[in-house]
Specification:
Length: 172
């Protein structure tokens, strides 16, 4: 649902023939194109004429309210009744309620959303600093007791026994 039904209901209010013709147009798939631009509050549609092989461009300008109050500022249609209330405009409004999907709504992106964290660039040198020349994982020298403790712990895991038995430590 891309559009509130209130827009259509207010447009066809008191016009039974207009209501029926717009419902038939939507049910018989005569709305050929529908685009809702929520940023500018404009609907652009192409609706096929009921008896001819022609189609009419429809444009509807909606009120700039976010609560879907259903107010239409103006509408235009290329049909002979376009300057009055025509069923092509009503069909576009009803199509916007019944069948329009998120892909029919024109996309817009916020340039700087409030929820986005500030962008910062991290270089590779910052992420992976070069090795320091005298770097050691331990602050002290590694002893034979440290090595035997490590081998014992690896032996408890069971997967490294072949490596431990075949490994001969060569002091650096």
């Amino acid at each position: 649902m891309a559009l509130s039904i209130i827009y259509w209901a207010r447009y066809v209010d008191g016009h039974t023939k207009l209501t029926r013709k717009s419902e038939k147009a939507v049910d018989s798939d005569r709305v050929l194109k529908f685009v809702l631009d929520k940023e500018y509050h404009v609907i652009s549609a192409v609706v096929q004429a009921s008896m001819r092989d022609t189609s009419y461009k429809v444009q509807i300008f909606l009120e700039n309210e976010d609560d879907d109050a259903g107010t239409i500022i103006s509408s235009t249609c290329e049909c002979p009744m376009g300057q009055f209330r025509c069923h092509h405009v009503a069909a576009a409004l009803l199509f916007g309620y019944k069948r329009a999907s998120k892909t029919d709504v024109k996309c817009s992106w916020i340039k700087h959303p409030k929820s986005a964290p500030p962008k910062s660039t991290t270089t590779m040198a910052e992420m992976y600093p070069p090795r320091q020349q005298d770097y050691r994982a331990l602050k002290r020298e590694m002893t034979d007791a440290d090595r035997s403790y490590l081998y014992d712990q690896l032996g408890l895991l069971g997967r490294f026994t072949g490596l431990i038995n075949n490994y001969h430590f060569i002091p650096v």
